[in-house]
Design brief:
The structure holds two protein chains of two kinds. Chain A is an all-beta fold. Chain A is built from no helices and eleven strands. In chain B, the strands form two sheets. In chain B, strands 2, 4, 5, 9, 10 and 11 form a six-stranded mixed sheet that branches. In chain B, strands 1-3-8-7-6 form a five-stranded antiparallel sheet, with no helix packed on it. Classes of the chains: A mainly beta, B mainly beta. The interface between A and B is medium-sized, with 25 and 27 residues.
């Protein structure tokens, strides 16, 4: 059972380039989330989805877009990368609206030069 | 708003008990959690406590909740080198059809052999 899988695991971008991070879960979870993790700041929610075809803004959505065309996938896009977006990105999923038990992927480390 | 605070670092000797503390501000929190993050990995739920409980014990782990002071602690008995990791305190509450989870910045536990 793979759980939550993120690709790619590492990526280096130049300022202004675009890229997409893919998150896939095989647990049939309704809820999916993208977080970023920065030193001294913990995890901050970027965007989330409460079901296929839905997305919503989290705490720090600027500079990012997301799509949830299929229930098992949640894509995070950077249209024009900036050095401030250098971070470790985590995808998570949850099967319940009443529980904060999240299942995390292993993370994607992005560096923007 | 929601805020979760915890200390950055804790060092203990193997075999001793570790106590990681956390304070939170949201009195409407439904659940409180401890997540563990090992190097290069995503977060994994370690244990949780419902907001109307005072204590929960699970093998070597004891969670204490003081709701009046909004203080949560995680005690690890007989700490082992494999317990070295970053521990995140988190709280959740219902928000717009999903559980909004707010994380602390994480406490890095170093276990000295």
């Amino acid at each position: 059972n793979a759980g939550v899988t993120q690709t790619p695991k590492f990526r280096v971008l130049k300022t202004g380039q675009s890229m997409t991070l893919l998150c896939a879960q095989d647990m049939n979870h309704e809820y999916m989330y993208w977080y970023r993790q920065d030193p001294g700041m913990g995890l901050r929610l970027i965007h989330y989805s409460v079901g296929e075809g839905t997305t919503a803004k989290g705490e720090v959505p600027d500079g990012y877009n997301v799509s949830r065309l299929k229930k098992q996938n949640f894509l995070l896009g950077l249209e024009s990368a900036a050095p401030s977006q250098t971070s470790v990105y985590f995808c998570a999923s949850s099967g319940s609206a009443s529980s904060g038990e999240l299942f995390f992927g292993e993370g994607s480390r992005l560096t923007v030069l | 708003g929601e805020d979760v605070e915890q200390s950055l670092f804790l060092s203990v000797r193997e075999g001793d008990s570790s106590v990681i503390n956390c304070t939170y501000t949201d009195s409407s929190s439904t659940y409180l959690y401890w997540y563990k993050q090992e190097p290069g990995a995503g977060l994994q739920l370690l244990t949780y406590i419902f907001s109307n409980m005072d204590m929960k014990q699970d093998q070597r782990l004891t969670v204490l909740l003081n709701k009046k002071d909004k203080h949560l602690s995680l005690r690890i008995a007989d700490t082992q080198t494999g317990d070295s990791a970053i521990y995140f305190c988190a709280e959740s509450r219902g928000s717009g059809g999903y559980q909004k989870v707010t994380f602390g910045i994480g406490t890095k536990l170093q276990v000295i052999p």
